[in-house]
Amino acid sequence: MATSLIGRQLALHLQKNLWLGAPGCRYVSKAAAKAEVEFDYDGPSMKTTVPGPRSQALTKQLGDIQNVGAVNFFCNYEESRGNYLVDVDGNRMLDVYTQISSIPIGYNHPALLKLMTNPNNLSTFVNRPALGILPPENFPDKLTESLLSIAPSGMSRVQTMACGSCSNENAYKAMFIWYRNKERGQSGPSAEDISSCMVNQGPGCPDLSILSFTGAFHGRTLGCLATTHSKVIHKLDVPSFDWPIAPFPRLQYPLEEFSRENAQEEARCLEEVEDLIVKWRQKGKPVAGIVIEPIQAEGGDNHASADFFIRLRRIAAKHGCAFHVDEVQTGGGCTGKFWAHEHWGSDDPADIVSFSKKLLTGGYYHKEALQADKPYRIFNTWMGDPSKNLFLCEVLNVIRRENLLEEVARSGKALINGLYELQAQYPGLLSRARGQGTFCAIDVRDDATRDKILVKTRDKGVILGGCGDRSIRFRPALVFKEYHVHLFLNIFNDVLTQFK
Ligand SMILES: Cc1ncc(COP(=O)(O)O)c(C=O)c1O
């Protein structure tokens, strides 16, 4: 009875959400092909400035309960569809930021809604298990079908977690455990290890470190925060570890014009990495692991060459440090490959690769050696959520069926070419257009102008994100087609003319 009721409601919801009734958008360039995303709207539609009156009232209401300083506006997720996010004031916006890069195939994708109508899936949605102790029967199969089917080269083990920070935090623990076990060899922990760890002292709580990079963002939990260096607001007033921080290359654009300078810059950073590893060992705080994003996202979309990463991975191996690639933001197809590190062309890219966001569940892949040796060392109550694996299986089906990685490569090319054109058109305003796939960014002359552009673009029906000091980042879903790129570029151009 309950099952059929839920089924009926979902069927109605599906019908409503599959409706394609939006009028055409006046900003569409003549060159743009028609929208091909079957469940998409065909353009933005704005009724108020954003946040509109209903959003403002709700922000006030929520403000009595929580800090609402970061709330942009309130959303109507029922009406949102495909590449379009609808707000509570009825504004429909092309979403080129997708919930901080975490919506893989658009809003209310029919394939995902359909999963909810399958009675066989209901118990997975209703009963969230303590996965580490009581996993469901289909859990190994679902992991194989979803996460293992896209495992990075050389990795056949995966640990699911909740969010990105939780994934990195546990990946760091795995690196520390691995490092100490390596040091101890065959002998287990000493009596001193065991007694000292309970009072936060060495040798049980060893003075090991993780090397990270300037501008990095790996999350906001205590361990992750010690490796995050993107913004003061994340760090202020929170105690941290004395861990080494190496410079991340600051590349000059266009890359073809500055290849010599950029190679020198990368060599300088790598040299500094080795120096820091040696220094920290001498300080009695050996580096157990190196963590890096393939493209620094929150810190300003900073890129480095494949050669830089491959050489860094070699340095890690040479000094006995684990190499952790944080693909929380870059993973899931937005660079045109499933993992950004695939662009390096290495068949041994890392010891650990963490993920979250577009993968819908958090977690990390790891080499066999980084498997914790005992239960409960890497553990929490939920250890992920099997319902997210169901969704992920379907997301992967859609990506494969619709060749979405090829689409991303195509749209990414149109996007970066459009950004190059705009930066040529507005030289005092825009610079350093860069990107891989649709994972693109451009710099604005200063942060105040960047922030104004973001607001004005949103009022014209496009949601973008900021990153670093003065960059705009583009993080559309994988169903963002060339048509949407042209739609966006036209609107963006309209806004930019006001800032000339
Ligand atoms: C590269 C990277 N690592 C880690 C995180 C933290 O993820 P979460 O916000 O889910 O904790 C983020 C979040 O933006 C990220 O971009």
Automatic annotation (TrEMBL):
Pfam families: Aminotran_3
Function summary: Catalyzes the conversion of gamma-aminobutyrate and L-beta-aminoisobutyrate to succinate semialdehyde and methylmalonate semialdehyde, respectively. Can also convert delta-aminovalerate and beta-alanine.
EC number of the protein: 2.6.1.19, 2.6.1.22
PANTHER family (alphabetical): 4-AMINOBUTYRATE AMINOTRANSFERASE, MITOCHONDRIAL, AMINOTRANSFERASE
GO CC terms, sorted: mitochondrion
Cofactors: pyridoxal 5'-phosphate
Subunit structure: Homodimer; disulfide-linked.
UniProt GO BP: gamma-aminobutyric acid catabolic process
Protein family (similarity comment): Belongs to the class-III pyridoxal-phosphate-dependent aminotransferase family.
PROSITE patterns: AA_TRANSFER_CLASS_3
A GO MF label: (S)-3-amino-2-methylpropionate transaminase activity
Catalytic activity annotation: (S)-3-amino-2-methylpropanoate + 2-oxoglutarate = 2-methyl-3-oxopropanoate + L-glutamate; 4-aminobutanoate + 2-oxoglutarate = succinate semialdehyde + L-glutamate
Domain of life: Eukaryota
Organism the protein comes from: Salarias fasciatus (Jewelled blenny)
SUPFAM superfamilies: PLP-dependent transferases (SSF53383)
Gene that encodes it: abat
Keywords: Aminotransferase, Neurotransmitter degradation, Pyridoxal phosphate, Transferase
Protein name in the entry: 4-aminobutyrate aminotransferase, mitochondrial
